[in-house]
Design goal:
Blueprint lengths: L1 H39 L2 H11 L28 H5 L14 H20 L3 H23 L4 H17 L6 H26 L6 H14 L4 H22 L11 H26 L2
Length: 284
C-alpha cells in the first residue's frame, strides 16, 4: 500500500518536475542576461533591464500555457498521464502536438518512486531516497536538453545529503558523507584538469563534479567506485553505440550527468549488493 500511494505521489511530483525541467534553464538564462546587462549596461540598457525585470517568470508564475496558441492549461488538462491520453497528445485549443516527454517523465517518476518505497519501506530512508531520486530525474533531463547541471539543484542536494547523514540512520554516517562529498568532487575535478592539460580540451563540466560530490554526500565515499565505474561503463557503451549505429558525430559533446544520475540511483538501491558480489568474484 505504501509503495502504491508513493507511486501516485510520484505522478504528481513528475508533473511538477516537468515544470522544473522546462522553466529552470529559462530562469537561469534570464538571470545571466540580467547580470550581463548590469555589468555592461549604459543608460539605454538600464531602461531595458527595468522593463524586462517586471515580467515575472519562475516555477509558479505565469500559469502553464500552450507554447503555440498561448491558451492557459486548465486543471482537468493537467492531470498526470491521464490528461495526455484524454487529449490524445494534442492541445485542446489549437491541436498542436504535446511532447511525449511529459507523460514519460511522470510515469518514470511514479515507477521509480514506487520502487524506492518498496525497497526502503515506511522510513526516513525512503523519504531521503525519494528526494534524491526526484532531483536526479530533473537533473538528467535538464542535462540531456541543455548540457547543464544547475547549481540551484546540485548544491542543495549536496547539503541535503549531509543533513540526512547527521541523522545517523540513513545511508551513511556523517564522516563518510563529508569524505564522499570531497572525494566525489575532487576526483572528477582532477580528471577534468588532467584531460585538459593533455588534450587542451574540456572533457566535462563543473556540474558533473558537483553532482558526484552530492552523490558522495548521500551515499558515502564507499559507493563512489560503484557510481564512477557504472557511469563510465554505461556512458562509454552508449557513446560508441550512438556513433556506430545512430551516426552521431564523435566530436559532438555528450552529457555525462545522466549516466552519473542513473549510476547513483542504482548504487542507492543495490550498491551494497553489487559491492559484495564484486568482492566475492575478486576473492576479497
Amino acid at each position: 500500500m505504501f509503495a502504491g500511494v508513493t507511486a501516485l505521489l510520484g505522478l504528481i511530483v513528475g508533473s511538477f518536475l516537468n515544470v522544473v525541467i522546462h522553466r529552470l534553464p529559462i530562469m537561469l538564462e534570464r538571470s545571466w542576461q540580467t547580470q550581463a546587462r548590469e555589468v555592461l549596461a549604459d543608460a539605454d540598457g538600464s531602461a531595458a533591464l527595468t522593463a524586462e525585470s517586471a515580467d515575472t517568470y519562475n516555477l509558479v508564475t505565469p500559469r502553464s500555457a500552450c507554447p503555440a496558441c498561448g491558451a492557459q492549461i486548465k486543471a482537468w488538462q493537467n492531470i498526470p498521464v491521464l490528461s495526455y491520453l484524454f487529449l490524445r497528445g494534442r492541445c485542446a485549443g489549437c491541436g498542436t502536438a504535446i511532447g511525449i516527454r511529459y507523460p514519460v517523465v511522470e510515469t518514470v517518476t511514479a515507477v521509480l518512486s514506487g520502487l524506492v518505497a518498496w525497497h526502503f519501506g515506511y522510513s526516513l530512508e525512503a523519504a531521503g531516497a525519494l528526494l534524491l531520486t526526484w532531483s536526479l530525474i530533473a537533473l538528467t533531463v535538464i542535462d540531456l536538453d541543455h548540457q547543464l547541471l544547475p547549481d540551484s539543484l546540485t548544491l542543495p542536494l549536496l547539503w541535503l545529503g549531509l543533513v540526512f547523514a547527521l541523522q545517523g540512520t540513513t545511508f551513511t554516517d556523517l564522516r563518510s558523507a563529508v569524505i564522499g562529498a570531497m572525494a566525489g568532487y575532487l576526483s572528477l575535478w582532477s580528471i577534468y584538469h588532467l584531460f585538459k592539460l593533455v588534450t587542451g580540451k574540456e572533457g566535462m563540466g563543473y556540474g558533473d563534479f558537483k553532482l558526484l560530490g552530492a552523490l558522495g554526500a548521500w551515499l558515502g565515499w564507499q559507493m563512489l567506485p560503484v557510481v564512477i565505474i557504472l557511469s563510465a561503463l554505461v556512458g562509454a557503451v552508449t557513446g560508441v553505440t550512438m556513433i556506430l549505429f545512430a551516426g552521431r558525430d564523435s566530436q559532438r559533446p555528450m552529457p555525462f550527468g545522466p549516466f552519473l544520475a542513473a549510476a547513483g540511483f542504482v548504487a542507492l538501491l543495490w550498491g551494497d549488493a553489487l559491492t559484495s558480489a564484486y568482492r566475492q568474484m575478486a576473492g576479497f
